[in-house]
Amino acid sequence: MSSVSTSENTRASAAEHLEMELVHFAAGVAVYEMPARFVENGVLVAFAETAMNAAATTAVPDQGRSADMTTLDLCAHFHSRVPAEVGTLRAEAIVVRSDGEKVRVEADVLAEGRRVASFEANSGVTR
Known about the structure:
Number of helices: 2
Number of strands: 6
């Protein structure tokens, strides 16, 4: 019997399907990269949300080990299309504040250093 929750399985499979790779992880920060194939806005949301929830886990007392981080709300701003010639996208997420259970996170999705989308979210601990 697996101890991995359904939401963890869903996140893992989405990240795997989109070939997301965690390239930097530290207190309050998570950075992912993924190939920039045909990318629509929904993919950018999933990409940023993955990075934001990873960063959020570092801002709760047990680093998210005993609970899942769930997105409570999310605001997206799409600044431009992903250029066809871009090979890799980067999602950079940072914790803005935390009360130990609810975490405010922001993220930018970059295409060759240029911001194509920005996000703000509140994530919460579910038990």
